[in-house]
Amino acid sequence: MKAFLINPPGPYCRAGSRWPHRRAIRSVGIDYHPFPFGLAYAASRLRADGHTVSVLDCIALGMPVEALAEKVREFKPDIVFMETSAPSFRRDVETMRAIGRPCVAVGAHATATAREHVQAGFAGAIRGEYDQAVTETLDLLPRPWLATKTSPATEHAPLPVRLDDIPWPAWDLFPMEKYNDPICRGRSVTVLSSRGCPHRCDFCTLAPYHGEHDYRLRDPKAVCDEIAELIRRYHPDEIYFDDDSISLNRKHVLGLCEELRRRRFGLPFSCMGHATVAHDVLEAMAAAGCRAYKFGVESADPDVLRQIPKAIELDDVVRTVHDCRRLGIRTHATFVFGLPGETRESAMKTIEFALHLRTHTLQFAIATPYPGTALYERARNKGWLVKEDWSDFDPAAESVLSYPDYSAADIAEMHALAWRRWQWHILTRQPGTLFHHFRNAYRREGAAGLVRLGRYGAQRLLAILRSRR
Ligand code: SF4
């Protein structure tokens, strides 16, 4: 059969992102495109099973819906798999209608709102990790994890347990030069050494999407075989591990570091992990070439952390950043405003903590109760949801949560203040961060990157100066 896989058009960061949002490009003006692992693994699965596959990542390619519809008409697929998200849902439905072929929705939003997708006109919606379930979906016959007009989905698609048995992502079908994580230097290739996370933060979409027992690890040797192939094909400057949290299993991360050292790839790597890491693990990571480390703190209010619940101690976070600095590892921390229990005072505390943490870069988001998460259910039950249209569920734009003593407007104000304070901070106290962003923009895009970032910087500076009057 012929299958078309799509990351549909629109100004969004969707497939490959854990927090789909509109591309506000608020932080550093960087054109961030995560590698869409779900689509890439699904493409390789279908190909390995003997099907003809075409892929379009319309966001990475900047392709409008008319051009996509034309490509679909030319290819004449039997079925289209489309990754959807909450903020882009309306637009995704329009794209599905423009395509005019049987379309199956996939991803975290399709998992949480499978019935709504079918009611909107999708031929089906897969609940759960879809990349290895696509072949079984081609006939659109009833499956417990496939919602259609005639059958609701009651389960998640079976989780692939042995990740090393899965064919490598079909990189050749994707515009590999477009994918980057802003923390990486120059051109990077992205790889997964694990999937899922054993923690259960109530705002996180991971567990609702993957299902129970979602945390799975790969063999470090298999991971390094894949890296060797990526290096051979794409000659990157850096490797990026896009694991949900690479550092949670001590044995795994130490084994991976040992294998990376043994292979001598001669490339640095960056990764996303837990906010607190043992000193000897960080030492092993640094020795294996770790150049930058990202982690989520979310809040500096212990009561908020308890409510989420996020199992970190703020003193340990400070120590992790200190250890990273000492070992020459750059750090990037993420914070969220508007989580349950937050007040204006505790939000101010979070801003002060974030600035004093002295990470190299930061990210501030607005708490968004994506459907399917525990936070969504809690917000509905407590009457905290002030908007119900999925288009408004955008952690880079506005709050759909409003608490009796802490309104959506308060949350948006604290979020905007955090960005302004951070941008003023790097301008006056951490100019090295600016240099890092300009150097990265030049490495990726040449002079055009410098101009784009320069324009963005000038706009931000004007906004900050106006707000300080
Ligand atoms: S630690 Fe991170 S990845 Fe794990 S559940 Fe919490 S937010 Fe999600």
At CATH's second level, what is the architecture of the largest domain? Alpha-Beta Barrel
What count of helical segments does DSSP give? 18
**CATH topology term of the largest domain:** TIM Barrel
Please write the CATH class name of the largest domain.
Answer: Alpha Beta
Order of strands across the main sheet: 4-1-5-6-7-8
Give the structural class: alpha/beta
- Number of E-state strands: 16
Low-confidence parts: none
The biggest beta sheet is recorded as:
6 strands, mixed
- Share in helix: 40-55%
How far apart are the first and last residues' alpha carbons, in Å?
63 Å
Bound ligands, each once: iron/sulfur cluster
What is Rg? 22 Å
CATH-defined superfamily of the largest domain? Aldolase class I
Mean pLDDT: 94
Domain count, please report it.
3
Q: Which overall shape is indicated by the principal axes computed on the Cα atoms?
A: globular
Can you walk me through this structure?
- It is a single chain.
- This protein is α/β, with parallel strands linked by helices and 469 residues long.
- It has three domains: 2-147, Rossmann fold, CATH 3.40.50; 180-429, Aldolase class I (TIM Barrel, Alpha-Beta Barrel), CATH 3.20.20.70; 432-469.
- It contains 18 helices and 16 strands.
- It has helices spanning 37-48, 58-61, 65-75, 89-99, 108-112, 114-120, 134-137, 206-210, 220-234, 250-263, 279-287, 302-307, 314-327, 344-357, 374-382, 408-428, 431-445, 447-468; strands at 2-7, 12-13, 21-22, 52-57, 79-83, 103-106, 124-126, 146-147, 188-191, 194-195, 216-217, 238-241, 269-273, 290-298, 330-337, 361-366.
- The chain has a six-stranded mixed sheet, with helices on both faces. A six-stranded parallel sheet has the order 9-12-13-14-15-16. Strands 2-3 form a two-stranded antiparallel ribbon.
- Strand 2 (12-13) and strand 3 (21-22) form a beta hairpin.
- Helix 17 (431-445) runs antiparallel to helix 18 (447-468).
- The N and C termini lie far apart (63 Å).
- The structure holds iron/sulfur cluster.
- Iron/sulfur cluster (SF4) binds at residues 197, 199-201, 204, 206, 244-245, 296.
